[in-house]
């Protein structure tokens, strides 16, 4: 009887390990989408200097992401357009207090091909909790959240951006920014 129970436990454990899922931390991408114009036209970008640090190495998404951090130099913004890069640097990011952007993942909940993350986003010397949801589809992990830059005490920087890009944004710059974190599953 003991051998039968041990055999069943071994098979179950092998099944759990064989089906374990985590993200490929070597292929992580972080992007964001800001919005302009009254019709809320999306403007996507990333940063060329992001340093990642992940939780303990394991076979689960939750343990890999719990406590993970991304440290970002906002002056290395990349919108794939030199004029947009210059405008965002000069009109917005130059108005930040010292320090860059740091994101720390907390309270990672891992379900079947979906979950939640609480992103602690530090920007302009202020930390804001940003709830994120994630899905796993076609071998890709994608987490998405929505932040409002006004929560970071960036009223002056936002006003400078909106004024500097008034005509390009048809008079409207939105304060909401969608943040995305993605990676292949391994």
UniProtKB/TrEMBL annotation:
One Pfam family recorded for the sequence: YceI
Keywords in alphabetical order: Signal
InterPro entries linked to this entry: Lipid/polyisoprenoid-bd_YceI, TTHA0802/YceI-like_sf
Signal peptide: 1-20
Residue ranges of every copy of the Lipid/polyisoprenoid-binding YceI-like domain listed in the record: 22-182
Name this protein carries in UniProt: YceI family protein
């Amino acid at each position: 009887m003991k051998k039968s129970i041990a055999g069943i436990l071994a098979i179950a454990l092998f099944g759990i390990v064989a089906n374990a899922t985590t993200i490929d931390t070597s292929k992580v991408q972080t992007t964001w989408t800001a919005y302009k114009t009254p019709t809320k036209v999306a403007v996507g970008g990333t940063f060329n200097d992001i340093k990642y640090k992940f939780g303990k190495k394991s076979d689960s998404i939750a343990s890999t992401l719990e406590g993970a951090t991304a440290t970002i130099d906002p002056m290395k913004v990349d919108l794939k357009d030199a004029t947009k890069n210059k405008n965002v640097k000069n009109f917005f990011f130059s108005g930040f207090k010292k320090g860059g952007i740091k994101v720390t993942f907390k309270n990672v909940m891992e379900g079947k091909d979906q979950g939640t993350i609480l992103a602690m986003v530090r920007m302009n010397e202020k930390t804001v909790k940003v709830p994120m949801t994630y899905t796993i589809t076609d071998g890709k992990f994608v987490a998405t959240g929505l932040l409002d830059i006004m929560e970071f005490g960036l009223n002056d920087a936002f006003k400078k951006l909106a004024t500097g890009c008034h005509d390009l944004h048809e008079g409207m710059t939105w304060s909401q920014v969608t943040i995305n974190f993605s990676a292949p599953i391994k």
